[in-house]
């Protein structure tokens, strides 16, 4: 990060904002990103990327047609990975990897996305030693391109009903892969359509006439030389999508396609040559690649929200429209209280999500180490934390980006703002790696050792609780919330409030479930009739984690220059949640009407405090113009002249007269004239 973000020629309003900030941006950036050394490395990586001619992103991606975009993203992906090890520590996916990728690939996936984000971790963690020796080299050297093919036309969520079969034939020691129906067609896998010649294929395993559920296989799909699909394989691109159109998400069918026995991942489950099935230590170890992406995408999502709010705050600082006091001149739109309420909570959310991303990364790494030793103890906790965070974070990120777009008025709707790209990329996270509602139900059902299981064990006095769940066993306070005013409220009080709301809803949902079990004939029907309340319980449980984790993380900061900023943002995060969460905080009179009114007053006072530092705070997220790719969010604030330049480079303006005019409009006008 540079010493100062102020330069000659910058927009005067944005310069004034930076001069008036009460803290040094570098300090906050260091805290946010985990230390000065990490910020220094970010700058080093950025400079190296800028110096490398092959990593120049000269084509404005938003003007490209689908095939051109796919090709340009493939070019970038190859260049990115050609020079990666000269620039970054390739083993640090959660840190340097994700940052490096965002500098080059922008908000899109590409031909190698799944190769790195799912296949590499799956091979590292699920292949046996012999398979690792055989597969890891080609994966790293990129002599093959691979993807993760699980979802089918008929089933994405309910993996037990996937229809692709892998039937073992002991005579030839092969599996026969087959797509028995149309709905068995694999559908969605990134980079499957045209790029990949290998895929991890999830298929229902049958050996010696017995079914063993879905298992992963590493399957060659296309010829290594000609890249033509192999006989028995039908593969192609599924067509344009809401976003990520640089990626060739694909379809895939097998027609009695034979693959060798050792293409089944064999570190956990095994099929012996005679067809004997050896089960894994934990039934869901084969789902590890999904857990990796759910874990890493929390950081990715927070960075998407962070870039949206950086753009919106910078633009709001240079945009002047309307007067607050008549005849005193037009104000920066950032001065409107309503604008602040739209924007500043998104700053807090970005930080809360980022700090949660650090926690889930640590847990992921601990679980990976444990699994290497054959210990699956922490796996359910990771499944719960990553599923719950994935759900809440991707949803609130999508909502937050949309608020940022709306807050930028008409210019927010233009691709020049970058919001359409950011939104359409980020919102995919609500669906992929487990549809959000389904993941919330997982949190309720199984995760965190199972909220539902926890309640029954707490009541039975047999609960074994983890750090993430121990609050659930605490007694609900009979007194009111301790909140009196924003100045006096402590982190502990705010955490207690969220835990109160979560506990209240968890027990409410549990009791409803038990009641429904008496009303409906099966536990599954009762579960379905309690689904909405269970999802609410999971959401509040995750929110309580986010608040607790935010303040725990910030408690490490003793710097008097930036600590007040972090406290203000933390309080805003919590109070905005309480104010918007209404009913859960007022149940049993925990918050009175007067307290709620004081919460709102607290929010207004925080908005006022944050306002003078808003530009500097988003500067501390340390996004370069290269990453933001937004005319509205330019560091220098020179928006208007660059909007005009951006429009002028639009291919439609290459000639004065369009083909639409020549082919359709002109003949119509000529005919119109002849009728006069
Ligand atoms: C040098 C190199 C340079 C490289 C430079 C580049 C670097 C790039 C770096 C970083 C890139 C990062 C980019 C950011 C991220 C963007 C990438 C985006 C890619 C997106 C691709 C998308 C892929 C996909 O979508 S793949 C398909 C995903 N599909 C799903 O998620 C399906 C959802 N369904 C399920 O997961 C499950 O079926 C279920 C959980 C809904 C239900 O499962 P079921 O089998 O029915 O089980 P159930 O009976 O409910 O539960 C039984 C018990 O099992 C437990 N359990 C379930 N799942 C798991 C699990 N995964 N792990 C552990 N335990 C699990 C469950 O809790 C139950 O437990 P219990 O104890 O018995 O109660
Ligand atoms: C951008 C993108 C990239 C993707 N990349 C890949 C990839 O690389 N590889 C891959 O294999 N897949 C990929 N997918 C597929 C993705 O993982 C699935 O779409 C996702 O898991 C959701 O499954 P589904 O489509 O079957 O949704 P459905 O399960 O059909 O969901 C539809 C609705 O039904 C509800 N629903 C379903 N089941 C339940 C339930 N039990 N209880 C309550 N409600 C329920 C959901 O909440 C949702 O509202 C990708 C998808 C997208 C959008």
From TrEMBL:
Keyword line: ATP-binding, FAD, Fatty acid metabolism, Flavoprotein, Lipid metabolism, Nucleotide-binding, Oxidoreductase, Peroxisome
Subcellular location: Peroxisome
Entry GO MF terms: acyl-CoA oxidase activity; ATP binding; FAD binding; fatty acid binding
Coarse class of the protein's main subcellular location: other
Top-level lineage group: Eukaryota
Domain Acyl-CoA oxidase C-terminal: 492-669
GO biological process, one term: fatty acid beta-oxidation using acyl-CoA oxidase
Keyword Transmembrane part of the UniProt annotation: no
Cofactor: FAD
Family: Belongs to the acyl-CoA oxidase family.
PANTHER family: ACYL-COENZYME A OXIDASE, ELECTRON TRANSPORT OXIDOREDUCTASE
Protein name: Acyl-coenzyme A oxidase
Natural source organism: Panagrolaimus davidi
């Amino acid at each position: 990060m540079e010493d100062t973000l102020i330069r000659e020629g910058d927009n005067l309003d944005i310069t004034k904002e930076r001069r008036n900030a009460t803290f040094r941006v570098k300090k906050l950036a260091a805290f946010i990103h985990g230390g000065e050394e990490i910020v220094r490395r970010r700058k080093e990586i950025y400079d190296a990327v800028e110096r490398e001619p092959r990593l120049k992103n000269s084509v404005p991606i938003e003007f490209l047609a689908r095939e051109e975009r796919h090709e340009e993203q493939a070019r970038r992906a190859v260049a990115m990975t050609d020079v990666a090890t000269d620039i970054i520590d390739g083993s640090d996916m959660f840190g340097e990897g994700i940052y490096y990728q965002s500098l080059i690939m922008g908000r899109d996936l590409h031909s190698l996305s799944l190769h790195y984000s799912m296949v590499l971790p799956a091979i590292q963690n699920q292949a046996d030693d012999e398979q690792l020796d055989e597969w890891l080299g080609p994966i790293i050297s990129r002599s093959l391109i691979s993807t993760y093919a699980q979802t089918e036309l008929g089933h994405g969520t309910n993996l037990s009903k996937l229809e692709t079969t892998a039937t073992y034939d002991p005579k030839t020691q092969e599996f026969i892969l087959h797509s028995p129906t149309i709905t068995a067609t694999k559908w969605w896998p990134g980079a499957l359509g045209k790029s990949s010649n290998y895929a991890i294929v999830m298929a229902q395993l049958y050996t010696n006439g017995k079914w063993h559920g879905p298992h992963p296989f590493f399957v060659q799909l296309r010829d290594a030389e000609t890249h033509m699909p192999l006989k028995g394989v039908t593969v192609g691109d599924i067509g344009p999508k809401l976003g990520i159109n640089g990626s060739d998400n694909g379809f895939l069918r097998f027609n009695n396609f034979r693959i060798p026995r050792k293409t089944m991942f064999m570190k956990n489950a095994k099929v012996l040559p005679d067809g004997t099935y050896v089960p894994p230590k934990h039934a869901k170890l084969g789902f590890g690649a999904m857990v990796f992406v759910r874990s890493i995408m929390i950081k990715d999502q927070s960075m998407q929200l962070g870039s949206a709010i950086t753009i919106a705050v910078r633009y709001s600082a240079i945009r002047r429209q309307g007067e607050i006091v008549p005849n005193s001149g037009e104000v920066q739109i950032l001065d409107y209280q309503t604008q602040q309420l739209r924007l500043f909570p998104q700053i807090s959310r970005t930080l809360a999500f980022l700090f949660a991303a650090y926690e889930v990364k640590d847990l992921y790494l601990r679980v990976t180490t444990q699994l290497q030793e054959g210990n699956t103890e922490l796996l359910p906790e990771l499944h719960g934390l990553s599923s719950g965070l994935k759900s809440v974070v991707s949803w609130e990120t999508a909502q937050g980006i949309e608020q940022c777009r709306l807050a930028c008025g008409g210019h927010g709707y233009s691709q020049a703002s970058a919001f359409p790209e950011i939104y359409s990329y980020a919102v995919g996270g609500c669906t992929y790696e487990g549809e959000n509602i389904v993941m919330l139900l997982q949190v309720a059902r199984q995760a965190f050792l199972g909220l539902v299981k926890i309640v029954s064990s707490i009541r039975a006095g047999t609960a074994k609780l983890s750090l993430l769940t121990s609050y659930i066993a605490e007694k609900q306070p009979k007194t009111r919330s301790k909140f009196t005013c924003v100045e006096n409220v402590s982190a502990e009080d705010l955490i207690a409030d969220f835990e109160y709301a979560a506990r209240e809803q968890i027990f409410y949902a549990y009791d409803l479930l038990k009641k429904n079990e008496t009303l409906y004939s099966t536990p599954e029907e009762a579960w379905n009739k309690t689904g909405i309340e269970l999802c609410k319980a999971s959401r509040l449980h995750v929110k309580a984690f986010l608040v607790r984790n935010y303040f725990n993380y910030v408690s490490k900061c003793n710097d008097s220059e930036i600590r007040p900023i972090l406290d203000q943002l933390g309080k805003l995060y919590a109070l905005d949640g309480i104010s918007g969460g209404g009913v859960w905080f007022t149940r049993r009179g925990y918050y009175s009407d007067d307290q709620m009114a004081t919460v709102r007053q607290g929010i207004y006072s925080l908005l006022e405090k944050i306002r003078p530092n808003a530009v500097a705070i988003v500067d501390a997220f340390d996004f370069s113009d290269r990453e933001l790719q937004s005319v509205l969010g330019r560091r220098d604030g020179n928006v208007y002249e660059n909007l005009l330049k951006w429009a002028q480079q639009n291919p439609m303006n290459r000639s004065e007269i369009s083909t639409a005019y020549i082919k359709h409009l002109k003949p119509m006008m000529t005919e119109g004239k002849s009728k006069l």
